[in-house]
TrEMBL record:
Keyword Transferase: yes
Organism: Rugamonas fusca
Gene3D superfamilies linked: 1.20.1050.10, Glutaredoxin
Keyword Transferase: yes
Keywords of this entry: Transferase
InterPro entries (alphabetical): Glutathione-S-Trfase_C-like (IPR010987), Glutathione-S-Trfase_C_sf (IPR036282), Glutathione_S-Trfase_N (IPR004045), Thioredoxin-like_sf (IPR036249)
Name recorded for this polypeptide: Glutathione S-transferase family protein
A Pfam family of this chain: GST_C_2
Any one GO MF annotation of this record: transferase activity
Stretches assigned to the GST C-terminal domain: 87-255
Coiled-coil ranges from the UniProt annotation: none
Top-rank lineage group of the source organism: Bacteria
């Protein structure tokens, strides 16, 4: 523990909020580096294969990219203050909640940031300018910031953030935040008195975007004091903690959210799987796949949300299922019974081809 990791991240980054919170909770020493535009597009891309943050460099020199794989690796290396529950239903829920934060909240993060530019842009421009070209003339910093902002604006349609879906997405966001605020009024973390993998997954959107950007901070986080307090707790170092809720149970206050999550997640995964099957029929020998394929539609509140399909989310599902299948028979039975009670047992039986992660994409693991 004496040697520090290097964390390449920005405060404005979605997944930086997830990983930074995790490192602080674990007490893993790290030095944070705010990558410049040259780091981002040259050094990081050369080392990891993609221009993406956050990235961790281990003391021995290895470079790791993708927060889920980074946390998997660090949990083995630093087992203290573990973030994976030992009991089956809570463990499965933690992985599910991580996937929820990583994947389901991306449209909300983009919508609350890039569709409220009148309130947000000056703050974002300053943040990005200081990171991208520190010490350079301000006009060049502003030009670089505008280029990044345009790139992210172009990304909106890739997550379904289009005007005809704004109202549904906003209502979904408000409902989730209300449920979370009510839950954190009685429980310090999602599954009890200690944070789990699911808490860190949720910190991506709720810290990096919603609690820092002026519009969502004012309109979505400030009115929900218990949620705001959870965000602050999650960024503290070495906070005292208790245990997960006893008896492998889910807190009652989390059940409405989790029940809805399970239904929507199953619909989303099935839609992505169908698009992947169609893509593989048309491109049977492809060694690489695009990040987005086709378009899928899935349940959201009282409506249907449409966005391009992503094979990556099926890799996330496969990672969760590998943990499930490695469990003892009685533990798998407990998870199956719990999902049967929620009428989503088939979540355990999706026939996903074997995948591996390749940068920001997933491809067949031949």
């Amino acid at each position: 523990m004496s040697e520090a990791l290097t964390l390449y991240a920005w405060e404005v980054s979605y997944f930086g909020g997830k990983l930074r919170s995790y490192l602080r909770h674990k007490g893993i020493p790290y030095t944070e580096v705010r990558p410049t535009i040259f780091d981002y597009y040259f050094k990081l891309k050369r080392r990891t294969g993609v221009a993406a943050i956050p990235v961790v460099v281990l003391p021995e020199g290895a470079w790791l990219q993708d927060t889920s794989e980074i946390i998997d690796f660090l949990e083995h290396r630093y087992p203290q203050r573990a973030v994976i529950p030992a009991t089956p239903v809570q463990r499965f829920s933690a992985y599910l909640l991580e996937m929820w934060g990583d994947e389901f909240w991306i449209p909300t993060g983009l919508h609350t940031r890039w569709c409220h530019m009148e309130e947000n842009y000056a703050f974002l421009e300053q943040d990005m300018a200081e990171n991208l070209l520190p010490g350079w003339p301000r006009w060049l910093q502003d030009k670089a910031s505008a280029k990044v902002a345009q790139h992210m604006a172009d990304f909106l349609t890739s997550t379904g953030v289009v005007p005809e879906q704004f109202e549904l997405l906003h209502r979904w966001t408000v409902q989730q935040l209300d449920w979370l605020d009510a839950h954190f009024a009685t429980s310090p973390y999602l599954l009890g008195d200690r944070p789990s993998l699911g808490d860190f997954g949720l910190m991506g959107p709720l810290y990096g975007h919603l609690s820092r950007d002026p519009w969502p901070a004012q309109h979505l986080i400030k009115p929900r004091p218990h949620l705001k307090a959870w965000i602050e707790r999650m960024n503290e170092r070495g906070r005292d903690m208790g245990e997960y809720q006893p008896g492998d149970t889910i807190p009652d206050t989390l059940l409405p959210l989790l029940s809805r999550l399970l239904t929507d997640m199953l619909s989303y995964l099935e839609g992505n799987l169908e698009q992947l099957r169609q893509f593989m029929l048309v491109h049977p020998g492809a060694d690489s796949w695009p990040r987005f394929i086709g378009s899928t539609e899935f349940s959201m509140l009282d409506g249907r949300y449409s966005r391009p399909a992503m094979p990556y989310v099926l890799w996330m599902y496969q990672r969760m299922m590998a943990v499930f299948r490695a469990s003892a028979d009685d533990e798998r039975d407990a998870v199956r019974q719990w999902l049967r009670e929620q009428a989503v047992e088939r979540l355990l039986d999706l026939d996903v081809p074997k995948l591996k992660r390749k940068g920001l994409c997933a491809v067949l693991d031949r």
